Amino acid sequence: MGVRKGQNARPQEGSDVSTDVDSEVVTPSSPTQTGAPRESGRRRDWRRSYARRLAVTDFLVLVWVVFGVQLVWLGGDGDTTRIPAPGEAPLVVSYTIVSVVLTALWVLALRFGGSRNYRVVGAGSTEYKLVADSSGRLFGFVAIVAFIFRIDIARGYILLAFPLGILMLLFFRWAWRQWLAVERSQGRFASNVLLIGSEQSVVHIATQLSRDTSAGYRVVGAWVKGYPAGAELEGIPVRTSQEYDSIVEALDTFGADTVVVTSSDTLSPQELRELSWQLIPGVHHLVLAPSLTDVGGPRIHTRPVAGLPLIHVETPRSEGWKKYGKRGFDILGSGLMLLALSIPLLLVALAVKLTSRGRVLYRQERVGLNGKPFEMLKFRSMRENADAELQQLLAAQGTSDKPLFKVKDDPRLTSIGKVLRKYSIDEFPQLLNVLKGDMSLVGPRPQREAEVALYDNIAYRRLLIKPGMSGLWQVSGRSELSWEDAIRLDLFYVENWSLMGDINILWRTVRAVVAPGGSAH
């Protein structure tokens, strides 16, 4: 498989076996002897520059928050705090000095807490967790020091600065992430990836990586054993051991910096080990991609045993405190929204009644948890007896065999119904379904019995959790998604749901309702 053996296959301290995100600009260099030192040049520039940008932003945010709280709560530099000194008069310290020290400690906590590490920025929730965790540890440290040394620090100053600081840090990290996602969608600030594996596994991993460009992996080539030299695989250039003496030479040719091994039968354990020795520390990175997809991070745990990096995958659970926590969140959320939106909902009901003949609320039987039917509520957005026309319209557009009964440019919509559908206002009566317990705020979309009848064994897993008012596929494309993509996203939610994930989906739902775009029908 082109892995050199002998004196060149020697261990190099610091070789990286990880899921790294690397290189803004990769300039292909000529093949060199494996193991020879090479200057990484601009390959690491984006990581350093991006970390510096985050550091500057964090510093400015903390200065603004800490000194702003001091100004608002304490009135500037007039107040002081006292630090007891044994046998001497207490040391009087200005709150400006306290703010300077607190800001410096906070910046250091974020730095050494790993919140700006290029391995965690750009995708996933780890970056946000590290920001909150580092800040929380600093808060605990300050509280313990103040208690032990009897330092009289204004409680309001501390209790206001920390939560506000965390919120502002998270907001600006989110803003930088949006910028980074745009850059990565254009091929910058990303790892250039060479895939190594079987034909099937290479195509599978390439497809998965292409679905989320914000993660920072851009496939530039593949190394497939036994594949015709110089050919392409689903648009990916392919190289083999017939063309290069080593995989590292193929990396240079493609301008790649990351090797992703997509199948375990491609390289023997010894060949894989020697490949890791050949990669240049800090320049090349090795990633092992198991044949496991749509599994959330909290379910995955890596445990080294006898030199083997074993990956433990937890079985998804919907019981205990998670189950009751989700139900409590649904009751609280739906109750508060019904109270807050009671007057606007009455106005919508009046508009529906005055603009078309028929009932205000549309009631339809849907299939819920474990296949149990329930009556779902919506504001009526179509003319009366619209259900009788559905099959004819689906047959006309050729989707009657798909379990996602959506009609494009639906002629049954009323004038007010088009507005209600576009902004999802017709869905709000389902808050009563959530309060009753038939639905959840977040979950797979409830479907008709005729749609469920078209399910295969995989799709039936959608029914293992309560249906929701909003869900992952609704905030990921809405009507523009195919049934295959919709079911993939729903199954991902069923397998990996969490309370924080629900909050994130609800936030994305609010954005989708306010700015629905062209995918709303």
UniProtKB/TrEMBL annotation:
Location in the cell: Membrane
Segments of skewed composition (Low complexity): 15-32
Gene Ontology CC annotation, any one: membrane
Pfam families: Bac_transf
Region (Disordered): 1-42
GO molecular function, one term: phosphotransferase activity, for other substituted phosphate groups
Annotated protein name in UniProt: Exopolysaccharide biosynthesis polyprenyl glycosylphosphotransferase
